[in-house]
Amino acid sequence: MFAIILNVILCVPHVQAVWACVRSCPANCVCTQERSCSVLCDRASLGHVPSEFPCEASSINLDKNNIKFLSERAFGTLPSLKSLSLNHNNISFITPGAFKGLPSLIELKMAHNEYIRYLHLRTFTALRRLVRLDLAGCNLFNIPDRIFIELPALQELFFFQNNFRRIPGAIRGMENLTHVYLERNRIEAVAYNSLQGLTKLKYLNLQDNRINVIHERAFQGCQKTEYLYLNDNLISELPENSFDGLRCLKMLNLGGNFLRNISNTWFRDLVELEVLYLDRNRISYIEEGAFENLTSLVILHLNSNNLTTLPFSVFHPVYFLGRLYLFRNPWECDCRIEWLKEWMESYRLVRDIPCASPSSVAGIDLMDVLYNRSPEGYCLDPVELNVTFYSPTPSREPFSTTESKFSSLISKLLLQMDLSEDVANTTEVFSNTTLPDGRTDGVSSGAWEHSIQAVSSFYLPALFTVVILQSK
After folding, report:
1. Which stretch is the leader sequence (predicted)?
2. Which residues pair with 323 in a beta bridge?
3. Can you give the pTM of this predicted structure?
4. Helix (H) and strand (E) counts for the chain?
5. How many structural domains compose the chain?
6. In the predicted model, is pLDDT for residue 389 greater than 70?
């Protein structure tokens, strides 16, 4: 009996908490004890923030309503609130101090409010415990430089899909920031001080912007960064020491830019780099030693560039690659990349390398190219096929280009002398021809005969040589 009474007593606070959460639940909302009093008001067609919430609320979801305005202390005093979501509303103005009274708030999500184009300096006053702030897709053009001055705990900042033309100065010096999402903005440059003081930053996403300039040592303040996305920008050149100091970097994405050459100084500090994307650029040349210090590299993407050859010295001594992507390049499958075929066969790290030239192996995968050897054992390049023209009637040998040009020239000359009956089925007319002395049509037949003899004496020996070589 005593145990039953004790159990009832112990359960009373829980029952009271559940009852209190449900009792104060706003109209059109659902309150549940699943997460210590969660208030679910999403898709409730609300035009404004409810005037009262349960004091015990730990999370509030107001997503996908029609809220347009946040007044001062819009949510009252909610000492236990940790998560507040206002995604996909029509908020256009946030009164300074709108989030006062929420001392425990850790996560604030206001993504995809397309009419938030301006934030006051004191918008986030008093949110000293805020860790995660999501303002993606809000059409922001700029924010005050000191707007986060009262957010010392902020670690994750979601600013993607806005209209920033520069990296917001507000993030500068924020020592606790670990993740910054700035993709799909209009950022044009990474200045030398844009990322100053971000000593704990691990993840930086700047992909799909308009970046065309990166200053020297622009990332030197990001010593702890592990993931850096710079893909799908307008980068055509990089300073020699672009990535100096990024000794913890594990993944670097430079794909989808306009790089033409790879310098042997860019990656010299990236000793922990595991994945490197250089795909979808215009790379035609890689300096020797470019990957020399990448002692942890596992995956390298070089596909969709303008590479025609790949000297062995570029990769030596990088034998530990787990995967190398080289497809969609105009490869010249000559002896310079025979080593690559052997590497493919031995390590199975590469595949899909169709040859573009020489013509005898064009369209064939490098794995299927057979390299001949000289008597001394040297590799012999695959031959370049001659372009040939075939006669309309069956014949044993194709006519060479030289022979065809000669026959055509003789035929045209004969036509001018009314000797077309000696040339079968031809209708071409050799007109408006400039002669060696500068005269054109209308010269005498004697001059023409002299020209024919001169041409014949020049071309016939060459023609006989071609025919003899073909017969052999």
Report:
1. 1-17
2. 299
3. 0.77
4. 5, 24
5. 1
6. no
